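About this split. The held-out portion is used to measure sequence recovery: a designer receives only the structure tokens and must propose an amino acid at every position. Recovery is the fraction of positions where the proposal matches the reference. Here is one held-out target exactly as it appears in the evaluation file.
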């Protein structure tokens, strides 16, 4: 049994203790890295990490690419923030958000041509975003939302114009 007062053998030297603390606190990826036999840079640690990543992601390519931080991996993607494939759909979300904000508008103020255009744009570009290379899931999602909001607005306008009963106010006889 270990004596509580006796320091561990790998921590007897103060410089080793400081180095161990630095390796634990700086960019610790997995909790078992603090164990002495899994010190940063050891072969055992690398094998353990690789097996965990393979189990989680099913691909060694992900394990080999994990060296870059997530922001760098996003930048390197063909639909990353350094391309138009990222920014065009991102700004297109503004149209969908504006259409959602129009849900509170009275149906009389909804425009058929505008909502038909929003719906058709959403449907056409949703299909297109799945057949182009690189596949752009941001473009797909914004267009699905755009088509959905356009269909909802058209349904509101149609229901109001053709299926609501207008109650006539009887005129006063003077």
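Reference sequence for scoring:
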């Amino acid at each position: 049994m270990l004596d509580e007062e006796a320091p561990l053998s790998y921590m007897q030297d103060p410089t080793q203790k400081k180095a161990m603390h630095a390796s634990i606190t700086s960019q610790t990826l997995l909790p078992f890295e603090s164990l002495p036999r899994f010190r940063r840079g050891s072969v055992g640690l690398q094998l353990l990490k690789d097996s965990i990543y393979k189990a989680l992601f099913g691909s060694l390519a992900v394990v080999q690419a994990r060296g870059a931080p997530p922001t760098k991996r996003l930048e390197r993607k063909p639909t990353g923030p350094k391309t138009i494939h990222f920014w065009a759909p991102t700004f297109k979300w503004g149209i969908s958000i504006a259409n959602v904000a129009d849900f509170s508008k009275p149906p009389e103020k909804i425009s058929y041509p505008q909502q038909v255009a929003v719906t058709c744009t959403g449907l056409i570009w949703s299909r297109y975003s799945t057949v182009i290379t690189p596949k752009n899931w941001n473009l797909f999602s914004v267009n699905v939302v755009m088509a959905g909001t356009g269909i909802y607005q058209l349904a509101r306008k149609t229901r109001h114009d053709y299926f609501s009963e207008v109650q006539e106010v009887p005129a006063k006889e003077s």
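Annotator remark: The chain has a mean pLDDT of 74.
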